[in-house]
Amino acid sequence: MVGQVAGKVALVTGGASGIGQAIAELLAEEGASVVVTDVDELKGPDVVAGIRKGGREAVFLPQDVTSEPRWAEVVGEIEGRHGRLDVLVSNAGIGIGAASIVDMSLADWRRQTAINLDGVFLSVKYSLPLMRKTGGGSIIMMSSLAGLRGAATLAGYSATKGGVRLFAKSIAMECASMGDGIRVNSVHPGIIDTPIWGKIPSGGAASGQNAPIDCETLAQLATPLGRAGRARDIAQGVLYLASDASSYVTGSELVIDGGMFAGVAPRRPS
Predict the structure, then answer these.
(1) What digits encode the pLDDT tens for the residues 25-39?
(2) pTM value > 0.85
(3) Which of these is catalytic: 126, 157, 240, 248?
(4) Is 157 a residue of the active site?
């Protein structure tokens, strides 16, 4: 299928790299007018330039998702430019690990919560009224496999992503009860090959191990499919939830993790 979101206006937060970039590019390929926001004011315009080079429509707006005043400005600019908002992809997030929760600072806990949870709350608070004016749409919140199960060195991260999961379900029920035509779902990636892995020291800050994590090696050991996913794999799932193909899907979790959540599949000898 081509043009699965043709004519729709989509907002993608954290769209300057990794999964967010892949989402923005695919939604634009499929016909959406995409608004890309990010704190990275160098890479963000490059992503949009690449989308436009392909003859598609996109704009970059710098945004710190923890800033409430900036949310009002961003949504106001979308309304001024397009008069509507059909798809919200709350993707911006960070991951901060710690060898033990006792080693995690309150400052890091609060920073992670502000971006991963407060930012998603603000995205809905300010985008939902415009989407309701539009007459329907799709909200997609980026959670994680860590939002479905515990992770020893990622307790703070898991707490935020678990919060996103239930926030999505609650907003789905609110929208359903109002009959506003807006569907709300969460996406739960597993080990995905993106630049973020080069920024996370293995073993946590207190372990003394500062070598970047090799996500492909980790995925070979941890996933039934035996490989890391790609950002495009997540983008394809988001495209489905953004499109009318998922018109009967709300309050659901789309897990894209190579089978990790399902169970363990020991390798059989060839």
Answers:
(1) 999 999 999 999 999
(2) yes
(3) 157
(4) yes
